[in-house]
Amino acid sequence: MSQIKISIIKYGSGNLHSVKKILEKFGSSTTITDNPNEIVNSDVIVFPGQGSNDTAMRQLREKNLVDLIRNHVISGKYFLGICLGLQLLFETSEEGIEPCLNLIPGNVKQFPRDQKRPHMGWNQVTLTDNHPLFNGINSDEFFYFVHSYYVEPSASKIIKGTTRYGLNFSSVISIGNMIGVQFHPEKSGFVGLKFYENFIELVKSKKNLSCY
Amino acid sequence: MLTKRLIPCLDIDKGRVVKGVSFENIRDAGDPVELAVFYDKSGADELIFLDITASSEERNTMIDVVKNISEKIFIPFTVGGGIRSITDIQNMLEAGADKVSINTAAIKNEKLINQSSKFFGNQCIVVAIDFKKIPPNNPLHKNDSIDPELAITTNSKWEIYTHGGRNSTGIDAIKWAHYAASMGAGELLVTSMDYDGQKSGYDIEFLNVLSKTIQVPIIASGGAGTLEHLVEAITLGHADAVLAASIFHFGIYSIESAKIHMSNKGIPVRPIQ
């Protein structure tokens, strides 16, 4: 089987090195790119969070990446959204006025003022489902978070993990080939590495099946 | 539950760790990458690297250091020292830093906080505040270039200092902290220049006054000498994270012993993996 091709979408400024390094460690061919030709030929899109809702959506539009991302998801290829990359999958966000990608019904809300914002540091993810992404990872394990907004999906069955910060919010979302996490697995030490290893395994297993 | 963070801080000069870090199992105590890996494995929740290189020509060394660190550790790290512009911030983030800490530059150019947090997101902008207690009956330093809203008055208790505590600014530290948060700082790193290096504990009164009113996370810095000091910064000062340097570098305490002590005192900490 050929190596899995992953595109990490570059659309702002920030640290994408760590994600790339880990994905390569688990045997994928990974590029950080905003080149549509490269992205369209990849098996997996990793969509990190950079900047704020409006600047991110404007950048995606300027770079003509919106339809590309939508088509990738609709075609059934794997997609992993991290932090803001999860939030942008929804309809609208309280962080701005630009509509999001509208791939998942639901909205993005700001934490209430009685909690410090951003929610920053190590917090637990309570698993609500046996998802293969969490093979070998216990429920209530700690992951690294940094965000002031959280997603509120319309359908509760897509929620695979939750986290408590003043209120319970959805920290893991999965619908078919579309996966989104609010934490930063690439900054979550050993547990985060395990998460990426599971992700690559999941992509590989589906890719093998489709060969038959 | 969100845990309190324990953050070792390393000073880097021309790409090398200074202040003689000593561990038996470290081959090269001056290598920032090796120390970063050591602290990651030890259970540190985050790391901070402060570039204290004096000459700007040699500062590019730090970018290579950051690149190397980001390939070896998978916990968040902040880089500070010599960050003066949007370009400096961009260079550090693209090299692999998760956050940058800006200090003097934010005071000289207030717009930097606002511009950088809008551009990169407030989660990666840490504003570092070095402060000292104002002695009672201290004559006010008059500084006309300071915004009157931020200037110290007879009611002020702490003043901001720059250049490692040498230069006073005439700015009220509490007012400035609020201003920085309102401009988009995602986190504040507050260092007591009176207590730094004294090993007598953090400035609990400052932490307490600031925590009661501020909306962003606070990292307490300056003064840790015992594990109980770490506890006090959180239980009495209500800090969200504690930074320490020498007590860990010199092997006086391990990260593990610190976390066990904090946990025994009822503070939520991330268990060591």
Write the layout of secondary structure elements.
The complex is a heterodimer of chains A (212) and B (273).
Chain A: E1 4-9, H1 17-25, E2 28-33, H2 36-40, E3 44-47, H3 53-62, H4 66-74, E4 78-82, H5 84-87, E5 92-93, E6 106-110, E7 119-127, E8 141-147, E9 149-153, E10 159-165, E11 167-175, E12 178-181, H6 189-211
Parallel strand pairs in A: 1-2, 1-3, 3-4, 4-12, 5-6
Antiparallel strand pairs in A: 6-9, 7-8, 7-10, 10-11, 11-12
Chain B: E1 5-13, E2 16-17, H1 32-42, E3 47-51, H2 60-72, E4 77-80, H3 86-95, E5 99-102, H4 104-108, H5 111-120, E6 125-133, E7 158-162, E8 167-172, H6 173-183, E9 187-192, H7 204-213, E10 218-221, H8 227-235, E11 241-244, H9 246-249, H10 255-264
Helix pairs in contact in B: 1-2, 8-10
Description:
The complex is a heterodimer of chains A (212) and B (273). Chain A is of the alpha/beta class and 212 residues long. Chain A has one domain: Rossmann fold, CATH 3.40.50.880. Chain A has 6 helices and 12 strands. Chain A has helices at 17-25, 36-40, 53-62, 66-74, 84-87, 189-211; strands spanning 4-9, 28-33, 44-47, 78-82, 92-93, 106-110, 119-127, 141-147, 149-153, 159-165, 167-175, 178-181. Chain A has a 9-stranded mixed sheet with strand order 2-1-3-4-12-11-10-7-8, with helices on both faces. In chain A, strands 5-6-9 form a 3-stranded mixed sheet, with no helix packed on it. Chain A is globular. The two termini of chain A are 12 Å apart. The mean pLDDT of chain A is 93. Chain B has 273 residues and is α/β, with parallel strands linked by helices. Chain B has a single domain (5-127, 184-264), classed as Aldolase class I (TIM Barrel, Alpha-Beta Barrel). Helices cover 34% and strands 21% of the residues of chain B. An 8-stranded parallel β-barrel of chain B has the order 1-3-4-5-6-9-10-11, surrounded by 7 helices. In chain B, strand 9, helix 7 and strand 10 (218-221) form a beta-alpha-beta unit. In chain B, helix 1 (32-42) packs parallel to helix 2 and helix 8 crosses helix 10. The radius of gyration of chain B is 18 Å and the shape is globular.
